[in-house]
Amino acid sequence: MIWFIIAALVAVFLIGYRFITADARKAIDSLANFINVKPLLVESMLQEMGSRHSQLFIRNLNNGYTEQMHQAAYLLFIYHTFVKQADEQQLAQWSKILLNAGLPVQLSAEHSEAALFYFADLQLDPFELAQFRRALSQTD
Asked: Rounded distance, CA 124 to CA 106, Å?
């Protein structure tokens, strides 16, 4: 009898967890499928954003608008090429990912502002991000 109670509690916990995280999983999967990357890469970015900013990011992404999906792809690009690992190999890999998704490898001021907002907890240097954006536009 105790085993049935324990099994029921575990089942309720798992179902509750799946229900609570459904929005986040939907947003992560939709972005990962859009640019054809592993969901783990999106999850790592969300963890770096912090709780409040990641919730806002998920809410915006779940609106389903193409513009938000493109913005999210560029945020992921900035995260992996500027914040996490800024080297030529990483830049080439992520440039190819964006091109395969049908997005130009051009960052606008709007993309930089969004990165500064969502990664506020990381305290990115706006000047360095602007230099990165200019250097990226000169390589094309």
From this structure: 19
pLDDT in tens, 9-27: 787 777 776 666 667 778 8
Residues 52 and 81: their CA atoms lie apart, in Å, by 23
Read off φ and ψ for residue 113, nearest 5 degrees.
Answer: -65, -40
In order of 1, 74, 91, the CA distances from 94 in angstroms are 54, 10, 5
CB 116 within 8 A of CB 127: no
Report residue 62 as tokens. Answer: 């779940």
Phi and psi based region of residue 106 (left: phi greater than 0; alpha: psi -120 to 50; beta: remaining): beta
- The tokens of 18 are what? 């799946």
